[in-house]
Amino acid sequence: MIIINIIQMILLSLWTIFIVYILTPFFNYKGAWWITVNLWAPGIAYILLTRIEVKGIENIDQKKHYIFMSNHASYFDIACLFIATKRNLHFLAKYELSRNFFTGYMLRKLQIIFIDRTNSQRSAASLLKAVEHIQKGKNVAIFPEGTRTRTGKLGVFRKGGFKLAVQSNTPIIPVSITNSAKAWPIHHFGFRPTTVTVTFGPEIQVTGIDENDTKELIDSVYTFISNNTQNS
Fold first, then answer.
1. What is the Cβ-side half-sphere exposure of residue 115, based on CA atoms within 13 angstroms?
2. I need a labelling partner for 223 at 20 to 30 A (CA). Which of 108, 114, 204, 216 fits?
């Protein structure tokens, strides 16, 4: 299995480099998104020998845009969300990823929203940019835990994404992802073939909620994700 994992790690790196530095430069913004959703993400799942099972897709109105909020236990979660939604998801990502060799160029081309947590002014500007994206009808994806869990347990949710939902008056779709950490563990490259389940909950309305009092929203998203990850 170790040899297979080494081969998979090499293939993941080569596939990402091919997409980012060889294929994508020939395409514009829309083309880069098509490649990401339809080629890169499915390719990652194929290399990991993992199937993506989607539940609750009927909760998503194809004519509406949302803020998708999901738990985060693996690098693989991003590809899983692309595969499950088949949408251009503008993730809120930490600023350091903009300089990452494997993904930095692609993330910048896709206009991913980078959050600099060390600078409050830049962080606020990033949230305003996210509001602009949403107002243009784009979908945003957020991991409210802020980082991948290292214990397997659901972490504490940050308030920023919920304030963004209220400010932009955009409904939230809670999402639970299970088994992604088995397919791609956080601590090592011990990839394991499995089935990752992505479950979408009913949309959560934000109308009438004060952005400084988002506890109700946080509790609703947390409860859905917690219940679905525990019962999987």
1. 20
2. 114
Q: What is the separation of C-alpha 41 from the centre of its chain, rounded to a whole number of angstroms?
A: 12
Closest alpha carbon to 113 in 161, 177, 166:
161
pLDDT digits (tens, 9 = 90+) for 72-118: 999 999 999 999 999 999 888 777 777 777 778 888 888 888 877 67
Task: Read off the pTM.
Answer: 0.91
Cα(48)–Cα(26) distance, rounded to whole angstroms? 27
Q: What are the structure tokens assigned to 15, written together?
A: 């596939």
Residue length, the chain?
A: 232
Question: 3-state class of 27 per DSSP?
Answer: coil
Dihedral of CA 177/157/216/129: which sign? negative
Report the alpha-carbon distance of residue 81 to residue 54 in Å, rounded: 10
Strand bridging mode 172-178 / 195-200:
antiparallel
Q: Residues 6 or more apart from 228 whose CB is under 8 A from it? A: 176, 178, 199, 201
Q: What's phi and psi for 113, nearest 5 deg?
A: -90, 115
